[in-house]
């Protein structure tokens, strides 16, 4: 009985994510390995990949770098954010929102989130602006983009930089404008699990600001200008992009829209089916397509741990992103206001539960997941 259930459990992280692309991966490794250029980082493929995303997004510039996390670091460094400065970030989200700010010597100031969409609450953010505030760094969360029009207005009103952590939102569009292009700079991540993940590590910075792009380009390769080798204009870092990943992403990009559409289709089905569960304390994310991305599909459940056990018993794996708000993390608590309250972030950490939503889920699997959630007893 147990083994049967285990054998048929629908995993949250599919081990076969790249099975269909295995030949492609072997192909591009061979291409790069046998190319007479023998360039393995920042070569012609990286340049083509940057150009592809640039045209795709309608942005001025795209700079490929080592990861989504270093993309944020590069932007923070390029905007001159440093010790004594404050950056307002959401209290609920992934570690890079706090550790990149601390990493440049600045202080992350945690703002509470909207209780339903789980993204930063612009009013809470505005209440935290001080003379030391230099930037706002909202993140799109799971399936909903942050309220970029209001955050842009807020940034303008207070003379702040707007850094858009769009790492999970590739392909999302809000009011006709793509995720990643709302901020002074945006970032994407290509780590395996992301919607446009690949077989390795990588990220990009997206910006319309040529000066910012030029600085990020220098910083990613030890502060060199790309013309004079070993002339270091800035204290940079090593955050270069891999040619194998560039080749893989170039070949896989044409299928991205289809994979995102499949995610959106699954999400729409879940949300429609789960609407009546509110009476049982289970709330799906808001419906719609404007500003939605469906990297992760997250429910809020009053009896989250019971729901998780119930799903496991029905052969459905789930995941808790994130079990603690950032200001309650041991590594970041020292930076958080000691009298701070983040009730919505705290509730989200207690109630959030994410369901499988990868594009190669079959309709039958989607139905099994849906039925498992619907059969959660009141
Ligand atoms: C994944 C992620 C990052 C970091 O990207 P890496 O490529 O893993 O460094 C940053 N912000 C958010 C919101 C993410 O989900």
TrEMBL record:
What name appears for this protein in its UniProt entry?
Uncharacterized protein
A GO term, aspect molecular function = pyridoxal phosphate binding
- Entry keyword annotation includes Cell division: no
Transmembrane region(s) = none
Q: List the InterPro entries hit by this protein, alphabetically.
A: DegT/StrS_aminotransferase (IPR000653), PyrdxlP-dep_Trfase (IPR015424), PyrdxlP-dep_Trfase_major (IPR015421), PyrdxlP-dep_Trfase_small (IPR015422)
| Any Pfam family hit | DegT_DnrJ_EryC1
What is the native source organism of this protein?
A: Kitasatospora phosalacinea
Give the record's GO biological process terms.
polysaccharide biosynthetic process
Residues with N6-(pyridoxal phosphate)lysine modification? 194
């Amino acid at each position: 009985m147990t083994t049967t259930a285990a054998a048929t459990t629908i995993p949250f992280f599919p081990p076969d994510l790249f099975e269909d692309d295995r030949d492609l991966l072997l192909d591009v490794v061979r291409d790069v390995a046998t190319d007479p250029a023998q360039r393995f980082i920042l070569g012609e493929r990286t340049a083509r990949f940057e150009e592809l995303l640039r045209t795709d997004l309608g942005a001025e510039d795209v700079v490929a770098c080592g990861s989504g996390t270093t993309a944020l670091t590069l932007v923070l460094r390029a905007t001159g954010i440093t010790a004594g400065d404050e950056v307002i970030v959401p209290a609920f989200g992934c570690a890079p929102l706090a550790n990149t700010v601390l990493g440049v010597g600045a202080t992350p100031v945690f703002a509470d989130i909207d209780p339903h969409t789980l993204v930063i609450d612009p009013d809470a953010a505005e209440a935290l602006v001080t003379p030391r505030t230099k930037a706002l760094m909202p993140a799109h969360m799971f399936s909903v983009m942050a309220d970029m029009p209001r955050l842009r207005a807020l940034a303008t009103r207070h003379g702040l930089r707007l850094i858009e952590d769009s790492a999970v939102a590739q392909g999302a569009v809000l009011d006709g404008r793509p995720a990643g292009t709302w901020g002074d700079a945006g970032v994407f991540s290509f780590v395996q699990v992301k919607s446009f993940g690949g077989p390795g590590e990588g990220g990009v910075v997206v910006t319309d600001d040529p000066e910012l792009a030029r600085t990020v380009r220098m910083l990613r390769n030890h502060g060199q200008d790309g013309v004079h080798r070993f002339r270091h204009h800035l204290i940079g870092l090593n955050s270069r992009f891999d040619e194998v990943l560039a080749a893989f992403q170039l070949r896989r990009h044409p299928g991205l829209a289809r994979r995102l559409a499949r995610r959106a289709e699954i999400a729409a089905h879940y949300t429609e089916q789960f609407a009546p569960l509110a009476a049982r304390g289970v709330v799906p994310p808001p419906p719609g397509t404007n500003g939605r991305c469906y990297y992760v599909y997250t429910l809020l459940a009053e009896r989250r741990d019971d729901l998780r056990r119930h799903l496991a018993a029905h052969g459905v794996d789930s995941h808790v992103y994130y079990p603690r708000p950032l200001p309650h993390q041991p590594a970041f608590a020292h930076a958080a206001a000691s009298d701070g309250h983040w009730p919505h972030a705290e509730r989200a950490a207690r109630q959030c539960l994410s369901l499988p939503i990868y594009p190669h889920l079959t309709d039958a699997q989607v139905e099994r997941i849906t039925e498992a959630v619907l059969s959660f007893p009141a």
